[in-house]
Structure formats: structure tokens, C-alpha cells
Design a protein that fits this description.
Elements (H helix, E strand, L loop, with lengths): L1 H13 L4 E7 L12 E10 L3 E4 L3 H8 L4 E11 L4 E10 L1
Antiparallel strand pairs: 1-4, 2-3, 2-5, 4-5
């Protein structure tokens, strides 16, 4: 029984440490949101907490999607092995 409880505790503490993929809306009035017809994504990456590259800015995401008017934005984070590799996305929706 002790081993089972220890294993359950360990799994609950380490959940999301090996792999996590999160998407969060960056809006307060989600019930009124109209996404639009176009989607643009921009990303930046980091490896081993030492090296980072990319442009996850809103302007770059809008340019990548050919968007002139932004209606909504999301943020996405994908992480592996305690953050040894991380990809951060800015996702914009609009026309």
C-alpha cells in the first residue's frame, strides 16, 4: 500500500514534466469572439535553457497569416523534459 501511494504521489508531482502542450486564449470576452477567416502563427524555440531563437511576436504572426485586422489571439507552449526543449507559439485570428 505504501509503495502504491508513493507511486501515485510521484506521478502526480511529475505530471507534465516529461511532456506538456498548453494553449491559452488571450482574450477576456470569449463569448463574443469571432475568429475571422485567417490564422497566423509565429514561434520561438529554446534548447537546454541556453539557446533561443525565433520571433513569436504578434506582428510576425499576423504577417505569416496575411492578417490586417486581428480579432483574437492564443498562446501555445509545448515543453519536453522539464523544459529542456520549449516551443512558444503566438496564434492570431482575423481578416
Amino acid at each position: 500500500m505504501k509503495k502504491l501511494l508513493s507511486l501515485a504521489f510521484l506521478v502526480s508531482v511529475l505530471s507534465g514534466c516529461v511532456y506538456s502542450n498548453i494553449r491559452v486564449p488571450l482574450d477576456e470576452d470569449l463569448w463574443k469572439t469571432e475568429l475571422g477567416t485567417k490564422v497566423g502563427v509565429s514561434s520561438n524555440y529554446s534548447i537546454l535553457w541556453l539557446v533561443a531563437w525565433g520571433d513569436a511576436g504578434v506582428k510576425q504572426a499576423a504577417e505569416n497569416g496575411g492578417i490586417n485586422t486581428i480579432n483574437h489571439m492564443d498562446m501555445g507552449i509545448e515543453s519536453y523534459l522539464f523544459g529542456a526543449y520549449i516551443r512558444r507559439d503566438t496564434i492570431v485570428y482575423g481578416d
